[in-house]
Amino acid sequence: MADVGEVLMSVLSTIRVPKPGDRVHKDECALSFSSPESEGGLFVCMNSFLGFGSQYVDRHHARSGQRAYLHITRTCKAKKEDDNNSGSGHPPKKKPTRLAIGIEGGFDVDQQQYEEDVKVVILPDRQEVTSEDLGAMADVVRERVSLSMAGIMAADSVSHTLQVQQWDGEVRQESRHAADLKQLDNGVKIPPSGWRCEVCDLQENLWMNLTDGKVLCGRRYFDGSGGNNHALLHFQETGYPLAVKLGTITPDGADVYSYDEDDMVLDSKLPEHLTHFGIDMMTMEKTERTMTELEIAVNQRVGEWEVIQESGTTLRPLFGPGLTGMKNLGNSCYLNSVMQVLFTVPDFQSKYVSNIDKIIDDAPSDPTQDFKTQVAKLGYGLLSGEYSKPAPEAGDENGASEPRGDQIGIAPQMFKALVGRGHPEFSTNRQQDAQEFLLHFINMVERNCRSGSNPSEAFRFLVEERIVCQQSQKAKYTQRVDYIVQLPVPMDQATNTDELQEAERRREEGDSSALTVRAQIPFAACMAALSEPEILTDFWSSAVQAKTTATKTTRFASFPDHLVIQIKKFTFGLDWVPKKLDVSIDVPDTLDLSSLQATGQQPGEELLPEVAPPPLMTPDVEVKGILGSHGNEEDDSLYSPLLSPVLDDSTVSQLCEMGFPLEACRKAVYYTGNTGIDAAMNWIMGHMDDPDFSAPLVLPGCSSGPGTTPTESLSEEHLATIVSMGFSRDQATKALRATSNVLDRAVDWIFSHLDDLESMDVSEGGRSAAESEGGRDPPPGPRVRDGPGKYELFAFISHMGTSTMCGHYVCHIKKDQQWVIFNDQKVCASEKPPKDLGYLYFYRRVAE
């Protein structure tokens, strides 16, 4: 074997020192979840700075020719016994006092201490070089290798750079009113205790206005507790902006709220403002919970959290293949729950896990940025069982102690960074909606599976919408692709109305002992609300050429292999404030949707003519004939592209101020015929889930003639996406040309013009016109699977908390007839799966 110094000299030109901007992967293997703490440690290529576990480093060496790797291994240090040990072997956990992660007073994060060993390894013979060995080598070797080692160890790892280490929900800004706040000389002096609301005599949740010293109760919370809104009403009457919460005042500060800025704020002159009313901050003690403590408490509502997490029982930990936990990277439980469920679906297993060796062999030089590689890596990590082992306690490397449920598990840092890259929400460490992430991930799968099998087809189905004009009794049929059934929650169908009313009465009377009563909604009532016809009051009928009433009925044009049902728990109150419905629904283990199968056009039924409604036009526009100023005899379009709709600017502005996208507001006003804010708002609430909700307003008929996108300027990516759904290139081109090259609108256009496409060829996976006519097959469309509409429940995802922006997700999955709860790194046998409190339900087709 050659001298190690000579070998190092021969590869010295390939050893680099990390520069600013270099991505150093020193925490996680690019092809597995091996880390420096894993058996065998992590090998970091000293040229590309990619990390590899011991099972993949030889493969990288063979493919790249690189020989020098920095080998990093870490072992846990034994934790010192805490002075405040409770006697149970574990120090007592401190209660969080800040809505924060990883900072003093916030929620605990892993603070495990490690001993680190670092050395250079030369492949293929795995010759080792320590820092001490470098001292005896030539100066040029010692200097270059030492600099590279130090640079790699000092550099922030990619996972560290991408991950927000500290999230603090309590960061507050200085109020703009604080510096020159007006305070009235009205002689009001506030006693140090014994406060009551000056309107209703409430003795808690009291706020003192810093302008006039009025002591009034705070806002009513979502569950009916809290105050009676008297402090808010006082601001609305007087305009006095700042109030301090009595009972939170200490020498360190207090809770200050700005009604004008609608947020908790800082008041740098708070001691001066309090002294004006006889309050000495230095002598005050806290007697009320701060708003942050209340928010933490609300997000840990005992009833919901304990039931969903099955906290009341001792759960048996499970380990083995398909039973691997996932570390929470900071509000990443939504991602963990969704991916656990997806990799129980055979399509995802066969696409990514069964072919992992080929996927890794075909991976690009930087596999950390390859979607297929990272999804396969995640799937293998979840299903192989390699990481489904009890997490050893510090000082218990032999695993002698009883397993406590926590696993070594996997930390999907690389995967999360890749799927969230460029997304305004999923690239952050904030909590997200699991349903939105599921659709986002399916969309990524669609884009990356244009050739070969596409596992998202397991969820894809066609929806038929039938609209019947009540005046002419003529019908219109359209189809669209969907992946999720959104099930409404009819609160008026609760079976325990008397109990709900009694609980509400006791809350209004200030009875703090009143138990929270959850509305019991029958699943059958939810299904009835889904299937019942929707009344359209402002439907423009092409048959009568006027607005009239219509009914819209939605049915399944195909039944997918796997059905996802979302319970629409998140809604808006009368004040347009988002809220979560606290409901219990008796979701069944088996489901038969056969009665909701679409039937298509009925015998003798007449269809509505394909004529669009007239556009709203300015009165002073000169209409040059029916063709418009840019019309021509070949293009007999009803509309001129120069004609602009008259939109009520005040209504558009009001909608925009509510936070809705401008283009969506313009469409809402246009399609409701300028009939006012209420109609426009109803349109928005009914179309928020439309794929083109935020797309620009395009008047009917304007897509033809002038303004049409020429074929040569069409997006190849858009064309490939539509072709991958089973349509021909000619059909995709026609759709994109008709919709100004907007992908979402082009897909919608195709499904509303299927009859026009029957004469065109369909690519592989679709059907020709002759086949459709002769064999009575469905019209051309995407690749959708169809079969009986009978299903069985195999998984559900539950949410705890008051909104999708906070709280926690867990999932329950049925494996070998046993329900299993996946709560981040904890994987246990479920004793009482809370099937009535789920948010997303996953069913699979029952074979007949």
From TrEMBL:
It comes from the Eukaryota. Residues 78-98, 762-785 are annotated as: Disordered. InterPro entries: Papain-like_cys_pep_sf, Peptidase_C19_UCH, Ub_carboxyl-term_hydrolase, UBA, UBA-like_sf, Ubiquitinyl_hydrolase, UBP13_Znf-UBP_var, USP. CDD domains: Peptidase_C19B, UBA1_UBP5_like, UBA2_UBP5. Zn(2+) binds at C197, C200, C217, H230. Residues 173-281 form the UBP-type domain. GO terms for biological process: protein deubiquitination; proteolysis. It catalyses: Thiol-dependent hydrolysis of ester, thioester, amide, peptide and isopeptide bonds formed by the C-terminal Gly of ubiquitin (a 76-residue protein attached to proteins as an intracellular targeting signal). Keywords: Hydrolase, Metal-binding, Protease, Repeat, Thiol protease, Ubl conjugation pathway, Zinc, Zinc-finger. One of its GO terms (molecular function) is zinc ion binding. Residues 763-772 have a biased composition (Low complexity). Residues 646-687, 713-753 form the UBA domain. It is an enzyme of class 3 (hydrolase). Residues 324-846 form the USP domain. The active site is at C333 (nucleophile), H808 (proton acceptor). Substrate binds at W207, R219, R220, Y221, F222, Y257, Y259, D262. The keyword Transferase does not apply. PROSITE patterns: UBA, USP_1, USP_2, USP_3, ZF_UBP. Its EC number is 3.4.19.12. Belongs to the peptidase C19 family. This is Ubiquitin carboxyl-terminal hydrolase. It comes from Acanthochromis polyacanthus (spiny chromis).
